[in-house]
Amino acid sequence: MPSAVIVGSGPNGLSAAVHLARHGVAVQVLEAAGRIGGGTCSGELTVPGLVHDYCSAFHPMGAGSPYLSTLDLAARGLQWRWPQIDCAHPLDDGAAGALHRSLEDTAEGLGRDRDRWMRMFASLRDGFDDLSADLLGPVLRVPDHPIRLAQFGPRALLPATVSARWWRTDKARALFGGVAAHHYGRLDRPLSSAVGLMIIAAGHRYGWPVAEGGSRAIADALAAMLRDHGGSIETGVRVRRASDIPPADVVLLDVEPAAALDIYGDRLPWRIRQSFRRFRHGPAAFKVDLAVDGPIPWSSSDCARAGTVHLGGSFEEIARAEQEVACGRMPERPFVLLGQQYLADPTRSRDGINPVYAYAHVPPGFTGDATEAVMAQIERFAPGFRGRVVRSVSTGTAGLAEHDANLVGGDIVGGATNRLQVVFRPRMSTDPYSLGIPGVFLCSASTPPGAGAHGMCGYHAAQSALRHLGSAVRPDEGMHP
């Protein structure tokens, strides 16, 4: 029986482990922390009994993952839960754009932009599964659905600032802009529309669910499936160099490129060492977790029913803030993503106290305290909010990296999304998962398709490992219940 060692137990490391184990490989996972999950981790951060997500929180790409959706994770405890409204984006006049799972309901709330929203997203929603199968993987390959990809390409290539001109109303522009800001870079650059278009399409296809009990349920379900197939997991095992890894036929690293370089050093081919040295991490997150007495007093009723609330004001204000961050400057009013996961999953709350999740986009390696900037953005759209806060806990960029070493400088998306790196990460190759050492692969969010609890980086890296072992399967054969 061939053997594999997976270094790191984030959703990609665990997905790779499960895929290999289901194909007859003896798998051992080594995790440096005392718990599994990486970014899919949850626990008590503010007051006893409240469940907070540490990093990954909302999962449109998880529920619609071409790989995870084929696994029977529900039988191992993973239950998706949906809020009444997936996302709301309030404006200063009290209005808000609201993203519903229903495309039609979303469009109806956008007034004069109803028909334009339908035209933009109807085909993306209907063809989302085909499109995601091609986009959530290596760029340099022959697509399975070239017509879908050709239809999406011209829209995806546009800067978000150009795409925003399609909308006539402030609500539609802001709603699109808040989702486009998940690009985590300047919105006036080519390809900055792509993330917004895909996440909105995913929302209209699958919604923006949360995992009942916290995002840790994703890792727990994958770990349970791995053990069912004979795999093992060891926590508290830190791998600093190749000699720390037990002998195995294949090794997969769920680590960022600099860590892979540290582990294998000069054993990596020169061209890959150079690529990894050039790899850049991007803007960061500053996180604030709050225990709030009762609901947040939003000015907009739609925000009171939304699992995610984007706080950034108008599209133009969001674009300016993202430009400031990309240039290394802390904006006075940063873009803030706020999570009310308890609306979909009441098990996270206790005795009328609710856990609230929020983070601001800040410059890479930001060392200041953005707590007040986050609080001010919430208060701006929910007057009286401060008076309901029971306790708050702030985690800066260094704290995020301490929790998860892959979050270098507080970068939660696995690498900068500027220049060619937005497309070719961590390097330009037909097999970006291979480290050029026979049997050694990279499977972290720094590989295609990037960040998200979708497991696709791990799946594709495991496919590369299976090809090395001589037992690769076609993607459609590998993604089965």
UniProtKB/TrEMBL annotation:
It holds the Pfam family NAD_binding_8. Gene3D superfamilies: FAD/NAD(P)-binding domain. SUPFAM superfamilies: FAD/NAD(P)-binding domain. This is NAD(P)/FAD-dependent oxidoreductase. It comes from Leekyejoonella antrihumi. The lineage of its organism: Bacteria, Bacillati, Actinomycetota, Actinomycetes, Micrococcales.
